[in-house]
Design goal:
Elements lengths: L4 H10 L8 E6 L3 E6 L3 E6 L2 H17 L10 E5 L9 E5 L4 E2 L2 H5 L4 H17 L2 H4 L10 H14 L6 H15 L10 E3 L8 E4 L4 E5 L6 E3 L1 H6 L6 H10 L7 H8 L2 H12 L2 H8 L4
Antiparallel strand pairs: 1-2, 2-3, 3-5, 4-5, 6-8, 7-10, 8-9
């Protein structure tokens, strides 16, 4: 028994004519069970009660932005939130083709300028989506000064005891140099992806072109710099190439570097707050 049957039952209860020929777990995310059906449709089922509301919001956002974006993104086709119970609520979309643009795959791309151009145009379009006009309900706002002071306080309380003294001092300077500068938080919140990392950027290895962007589970209003920070995995020169086609990046470059310097600590914080020892160890690796 592979555990897929209860999810298949939920899909067919909502869509009785939907024929399931094959169903496999595509991945096991922190927040969703992800089922690949008939090698063509991705179904996401929230693992927790709070995730149902989050996935419902993601579904509304994805439906609204389809015509605004220059690259394919998940387009909800199968939706069931009338019964909000965990294991019954879901969203399904046609599989977005492509392979994750992991660092090894990125290294093989000969024309990185073309990829930078595609990514820049996508981010610029996403950050310009008039989402407040497209969705009636107010969206949460993230990346605020208050939120990051809270994160910093939790890092001091929960992570500093495990970290080297010089690492604590370095992290304190990293946070306080930005959080004590009011000018850094005078930005207009935009629709941002929120998890714009290597696993969610898809490319075609044959054409060496971007083929789509997935996983909009953290997409709300926030700082555009947060998305750009995820691209620093590919190196600063690549992000500078992105900035040539998305000039506003130069305006928030200090925050790009700031967010990049928080990612490992956020993973460690998640680990210690949720009992995930592997995430805790990975996040703190460079600080102990």
């Amino acid at each position: 028994m592979d555990g897929t049957q209860p999810f298949i039952d939920a899909i067919q209860a909502a869509y009785p004519d939907f024929v399931v020929e094959t169903a496999v777990f595509n991945q096991e995310g922190q927040y969703n069970h992800v089922l690949l059906v008939n090698d063509a449709i991705v179904f996401r089922f929230p693992r927790f009660e709070g995730g149902v509301e989050q996935l419902a919001l993601e579904t509304k956002i994805l439906t609204a932005v389809q015509s605004y974006l220059p690259l394919p993104v998940p387009n909800p086709v199968y939706v069931q939130f009338q019964n909000p119970a965990v294991g019954q609520a879901f969203m399904g979309y046609k599989l977005v083709p492509g392979e994750p643009l992991m660092p090894k795959a990125f290294a093989k791309i000969s024309d990185k300028t073309a990829v930078a151009t595609q990514i820049a145009h996508f981010l610029q379009a996403l950050h310009a989506v008039p989402i407040r006009d497209l969705i009636a309900e107010p969206l949460p706002v993230s990346d605020t000064e208050e939120e990051w002071w809270d994160v910093y306080g939790r890092i001091q309380t929960k992570l500093f005891p495990y970290m080297r003294l010089d690492a604590c001092k370095s992290v304190a300077h990293h946070f306080e140099s930005v959080l004590n500068d009011p000018s850094q938080y005078q930005f207009e919140p935009v629709l941002r992806h929120g998890d714009f990392g290597t696993g969610n950027l898809l490319h075609n290895p044959d054409t060496q072109q971007m083929s789509g962007i997935i996983d909009f589970g953290f997409t709300i209003l926030g700082d555009p710099a947060f998305d750009v920070a995820g691209l620093l995995t590919y190196g600063e020169s690549f992000v500078q190439e992105v900035a040539k086609h998305y000039p506003a990046v130069h305006d928030f470059w200090p925050r790009v570097r700031f967010y990049k310097g928080t990612f490992a600590l956020i993973e460690a914080l998640y680990g210690i707050e949720n009992g995930d020892e592997q995430a805790f160890q990975r996040g703190l690796e460079a600080y102990v």
